[in-house]
Amino acid sequence: MSEADERVLDYPLPAPEALEPPAEWDELRQRCPVSRAKLPSGDEVALLTRYADVKQVLSDDRFDRQLNQPDAARLSDTDSGGVFNSEMSSTLPQGGEGHLRWRRLLNRWFTAKRTNALRPEIAGMAEQLIDEMIASGHPADLKAGLGFPLPVWVICDVLGVPSDDRDRFSRWSDMFLNLTRFTGEEVKTAEREFFEYMRDHITAKREDPGEDVLSELIAATAEEGEPMSDKQLAATGLGLLIAGHETTANMIGKMVAMLLADRDRWRALVADRTLVRTAVEESLRFDANSGLGTVRYLGEDADVAGVELPRGTTVMCSMAAANRDAEAFEGAAEMDLSRSPNPHLAFGAGVHSCLGQALARTELQVTLEVLLEKLPTLELAVPAEQLRQLEGLVVGGLREVPVRW
Amino acid sequence: MKITVDEEKCCGAGTCVLTAPDVFDQRDEDGVVVLLDESPGADLQASAREAASTCPAQAILLSERA
Ligand code: HEM
Ligand code: SF4
């Protein structure tokens, strides 16, 4: 840390409005690219806000998410830090060779080709959900009606879970993610039910393999002579649900809200559907409310932005701040629906960069296409200033997205 | 334009294939990038450049000579 700045920020930084960036970002990027910030747990991190620095740290595969190190900062002060920290990180490899193997195995299911092949199915889901929303009339909450269910339906498909069980997955996911709204006891029960369900589901897949990712993992790891255990398979299912549901659900809501906040944006898209791809990328870049950021634990000393960070430091990379860095993006404060190239960091960077990004992109593109098709007159039912941020800790989002048409 | 890819660095996220499907593909077994066209014609160069700059693993290298 520089001597000059002894200030310790309270993190996350408050934003003036749900779609607006925190006032401090500009100043931090310019004057204090490595700043001290205190998490809700009381632990301190080094906060990075410049594009170049965030990209450098995320791309450096010496740094992992090994937040179980005794001196690593804890995110929250609840004892477990949530399901993601407990089950997922203890059963699945977080770094090194083990992670590489797990990732390459899963990659075969998440290639651009495979996710493209899911397009018609995803479009069918979006159509069904939007039709139901239209049938119940406006104003409607687009987040509850479309943003929340769509990604969990997609993950059920990926896991080979029959559509009749989608609602149970939805409810479990809701309970895992909204840790504050439910008691520890309720979450534990949901966790138990989920693992019981997965155990039976995996047994069924072992006997009668399908086209899903679990069947694929069972076959591929057996072939390599290192079969994956039921426990690892179930943890992978949980990991995909947790990593892919809340993130995408909130992004659908925020994307639509940002595009409707200025009707010229929506009109431009209605007039020219070829903008959908770049508009999705720009929504990912422009999202000022993407959550805490991504953490890395420094297992050795590192030099970032000319500052010597000692080993043992926990670094918080704010991708959202980096994505608004004027050094990296021309007109960074403007939403430009045709921006290209758009090397934003919303999916992270380096070996841990989002495994599901091709799928997430497909979900966002298809949702937007179907909305433009079915509801070209869509608009926000409240002024954008009245949209409210979700209270959650890790993934940023809007509580609801009230719309009419 | 001449393109090279670093298979070791590639994390298989498929961004390049979504951006420039005529230039890049991914192996079915592990999602690692496959270069379809190492010196793409003029009409594909913009999307190849975009793929290189948006690759999350910085696994795509471009040299503008030849
Ligand atoms: C708009 C939606 C999404 C956003 C913004 C997003 C963002 C991210 C980010 C920033 C990371 C990196 C975390 C780190 O570096 O520590 C990540 C990792 C990951 N994401 Fe996503 N994600 C999204 C959707 C999805 C979907 C749909 C899936 C799969 C169904 C998914 C699965 C994963 C997995 C498994 C990882 C861990 C990868 C690894 O450790 O190698 N994500 N995501
Ligand atoms: S974008 Fe980069 S990391 Fe992703 S598949 Fe292509 S080369 Fe590999």
From TrEMBL, chain A:
Q: Which GO terms describe its molecular function?
A: heme binding; iron ion binding; monooxygenase activity; oxidoreductase activity, acting on paired donors, with incorporation or reduction of molecular oxygen
Q: Where does this protein have coiled-coil stretches?
A: none
Q: Which Gene3D superfamilies match?
A: Cytochrome P450 (1.10.630.10)
Q: Which residues, if any, are the signal sequence?
A: none
User: Is Oxidoreductase one of the keywords?
Assistant: yes
The coenzyme or cofactor needed here is: heme
* Keywords tagged on the record: Heme, Iron, Metal-binding, Monooxygenase, Oxidoreductase
* InterPro entries to which the protein is assigned, alphabetical: Cyt_P450, Cyt_P450_B, Cyt_P450_CS, Cyt_P450_sf
Q: Where is this region: Disordered?
A: 1-21, 68-95
* PANTHER family to which the protein is assigned, alphabetical: CYTOCHROME P450 BJ-1, P450, PUTATIVE (EUROFUNG)-RELATED
- Give the family this protein belongs to, as stated in its UniProt record: Belongs to the cytochrome P450 family.
Name of the protein described by the UniProt record: Cytochrome P450
Report the source organism: Halosaccharopolyspora lacisalsi
UniProtKB/TrEMBL annotation, chain B:
For the keyword Plastid, the answer is no
Output the Gene Ontology terms for molecular function.
3 iron, 4 sulfur cluster binding; electron transfer activity; iron ion binding
Q: Which residues form the 4Fe-4S ferredoxin-type domain?
A: 1-29
Which keywords, in A-to-Z order, does the entry hold? 3Fe-4S, Electron transport, Iron, Iron-sulfur, Metal-binding, Transport
Give cofactor(s), names only. [3Fe-4S] cluster
Instruction: Tell me yes or no: is Metal-binding among this UniProt entry's keywords.
Output: yes
InterPro entries noted in UniProt: 3Fe4S_ferredoxin, 4Fe4S_Fe-S-bd, Fe-S_cluster_ET
Q: Function of this protein?
A: Ferredoxins are iron-sulfur proteins that transfer electrons in a wide variety of metabolic reactions.
Write the protein's name. Answer: Ferredoxin
The organism of origin for this protein: Halosaccharopolyspora lacisalsi
